[in-house]
Specification:
The protein has about 400 residues and is α/β, with parallel strands linked by helices. It contains 14 helices and 15 strands.
């Protein structure tokens, strides 16, 4: 794009209601956030268990800071892989019930590293239509052929896999879809992969820490185990810190360790973050009340939103998507809630399909019943007395 076009393109985005504006947050993450000098009841964070400001994690950081300092200094292949990183990888593998794990700096980098390690020219990747942008980008970077299958449509995927003559096949899916909050049919997808001799790559960004009896994620939720599964968990959401990991059969993880450019050519994550994550795993395992409370809040909000004119997508997870439709109306609702001291983000294209702009309500174990009731009451008032269209400020 030429320099002269940038201003015009930005104006077009603004006119279409697609300009994104960052908010400046003060203080720690929690159910209440101080933003631009005002305090909001926040339903915008992926801190599903309320661990981002947990004192045990802060204590772990302080201890690791004294022992390891701040930076890792180099990539994990050189001198950035510390004792605490190794302990974290071993603990993560045990936690999700897989032989070995590899720690990445972010979930995006994990996905960009895994798919090109497993597939390349002459291979095929089958990707769910609603997969996260990082999976879409990773499939493109692999240089394998990419076939998109309709969202959670196992029958359509079966037909596509039967018609494929590719040497190697990979099926990739979110476990919990980040904008709709629904679950991928992992047992049926794994059965297809067994039948068609394919890998199943599962991105459990929004299930890790929340699903399963102990919070170990979507594989435990579905009671799945297979050497074909390559599991990716994100550590900056329910775990409350930062980073991600890949877990699988030991040879698979070793191959990714040798081939993933996003692991090989980046500085390792700071050791103090690995220490915080070890503490987070302790809390996830020991404070099961957080998951139980979150489940109660999910039931409370799904029941409370059932009578409104907007469409609530079916979800049993902490992600509750209220479909508004047009961008301007979604922005108007967001701004009206903000004026009432409540922060719920409006999600618009290209993050979601055109015509499905929505309020994405994210629940946390740090919320209380009264917080959810306050949101429901505010939405009820807006449903009865719609506000004039607004532009985000």
């Amino acid at each position: 794009m030429r320099r002269a076009e940038l201003g015009q393109r930005l104006r077009e985005l603004d006119q279409a209601g697609l300009i994104r504006r960052r908010r400046r947050v003060e203080g720690p993450q929690g159910p209440r956030l101080q933003v631009d000098g005002a305090v909001y009841l926040a339903f915008c964070s992926n801190d599903y268990l309320g661990l981002a400001n947990h004192p045990a994690l802060a204590d772990a950081v302080r201890g690791a800071l004294e022992e390891f300092g701040v930076g890792a200094g180099a990539s994990g292949h050189i001198c950035g892989h510390t004792r605490v990183h190794e302990a974290l990888e071993e603990r993560l593998a045990r936690f999700v019930g897989l032989p070995r794990a590899l720690h990445f700096s972010t979930g995006y980098m994990a996905n960009l590293g895994v798919l090109p390690s497993l597939a390349g020219p002459g291979d095929v990747i089958f990707s769910d239509r609603l997969n996260h942008a990082s999976l879409i980008d990773a499939a493109r970077l692999s240089r394998a052929d990419v076939e998109i299958f309709p969202h959670c449509d196992v029958a359509a995927l079966d037909r596509q896999m039967q018609a494929s003559g590719h040497r190697s096949k990979v099926v990739v899916t979110d476990a919990v879809f980040s904008m709709d909050g629904d679950l991928a049919p992992l047992p049926r997808l794994l059965a297809l992969c067994e039948r068609h001799d394919a890998w199943l790559v599962v991105d459990d960004a929004h299930g890790f820490g929340v699903l399963g009896q102990t919070g170990s994620g979507s594989l435990a939720h579905w009671a799945l185990s297979s050497e074909r599964i390559v599991y990716i968990g994100t550590l900056g959401k329910a775990a409350g810190v930062f980073g991600a990991f890949v877990a699988a059969d030991a040879d698979v993880v070793e191959w990714i360790l040798q081939r993933a450019r996003t692991y090989m050519f980046t500085t390792a994550s700071p050791p103090l973050l690995a220490a915080a994550l070890l503490a987070a795993l302790d809390v996830i395992e020991s404070e099961s009340w957080r998951r139980r409370h979150l489940a109660d809040l999910i039931g409370r909000i799904t029941s409370g939103l059932s009578g409104f004119q907007w469409r609530l997508l079916p979800s049993t997870t902490a992600i509750q998507a209220l479909i508004i439709g047009e961008n301007a109306e979604a922005i108007s609702l967001m701004e009206s809630l903000r004026r009432n001291g409540i922060w719920v983000p409006a999600i618009r294209p290209p993050t979601v399909p055109t015509g499905t702009a929505r309020l994405r309500i994210s629940l946390s174990a740090a919320h209380c019943d009264q917080d959810v009731d306050r949101l429901l009451n505010a939405l009820g008032e807006l449903a009865r007395h719609p506000a004039a269209p607004a532009r985000p400020t």
